[in-house]
Amino acid sequence: MCATAMRSFAQWDHHPQAKALVRTPPVSLIRIGDAPKRLPTEDPSRPLDDIRVLDLSRVLAGPVAGRTLAAYGADVLLVTSPNLPALPVIDIDTSLGKRTTQLDLRQHSDKEILRGLCKESDVFLQAYRPGGLNDKGFGTHELAKLRPGIICANLTAWGWDGPWKDRRGFDSLVQTATGFNVAEDEAYRDFCKLERHVTPKPFPLQALDHAAGYLLAYGINAALCKSMTEGGSWEVRVSLAAVGQWVRSLGRLSPEEAFGKGRPFPQPLDSEVVALSTDWPQDNSDTTARLGVHEITAIKHAAILSKTPAKEGRYSQAPMVLNAHPPSWLS
């Protein structure tokens, strides 16, 4: 079970785990092995053309990173376990632009399939519990030996140092432990002129997950650049706790600005949302063809690149399910 005590910012700042993170940036790059310099793709139509990404992540932060890489040209293969529950509403959104397959790493044959995919991959993105994939033979240093030049992108809840480094965790838990829920509640009660009686008030969305996902994608791009200019295998490290620390450092709105002047959440059919959305066709794989033809409308990517636009909407595909494709690369 994942659980933690709710703390204020002051209480968290005195915690040993917080002290272990004081000098930790939201994104870290570490060289983990030697390899020749990566050759850039000639005349790419998008920044990440010819980059192969294995995405072994679930729910939000890791999948958001993989979706971002897919939008800018990468061949992203989302690999999930048939033994874990699907989260259809989230899975459909975060798998946009990817291909999806399932492997059971408790089976030797499926482990060998994954090993084969790793040997031909450029990026291995994972967000399982600390050490979880090490036990299966897919730890960072094992991957660097298996595929010299690989980028290993790892996401954890609490970071790589301190007494909580091996703990599981997720966005809401990190918000609670690190003081955000208390701070939000205190600000809201001040705005409403209510008596101070602390109850947890979470962010209106999973802000740490989304921020961590985009920072992870940024780190992967930076590591790919490093591999072209310096060579080597690289690890990208992002933790929800370090991202929270960075978010906190950006400052806060006053209660009046946040709760008094803040706009209500837009609704899906609001004109502003419609203008920023695009329609995605369902991928036409053998698996999805049996499900009938569907379409999904989703918000466009925020970053607009004039020469290499995001691969989305009718220029891409939405797999809709977690086992839409065979475990293989496109080419």
From TrEMBL:
<dbReference type="InterPro" id="IPR003673">
    <property type="entry name" value="CoA-Trfase_fam_III"/>
</dbReference>
<dbReference type="Pfam" id="PF02515">
    <property type="entry name" value="CoA_transf_3"/>
</dbReference>
<protein>
    <submittedName>
        <fullName>CoA-transferase family III domain-containing protein</fullName>
    </submittedName>
</protein>
<comment type="similarity">
    <text>Belongs to the CoA-transferase III family.</text>
</comment>
<dbReference type="InterPro" id="IPR050509">
    <property type="entry name" value="CoA-transferase_III"/>
</dbReference>
<dbReference type="InterPro" id="IPR023606">
    <property type="entry name" value="CoA-Trfase_III_dom_1_sf"/>
</dbReference>
<dbReference type="GO" id="GO:0003824">
    <property type="term" value="F:catalytic activity"/>
</dbReference>
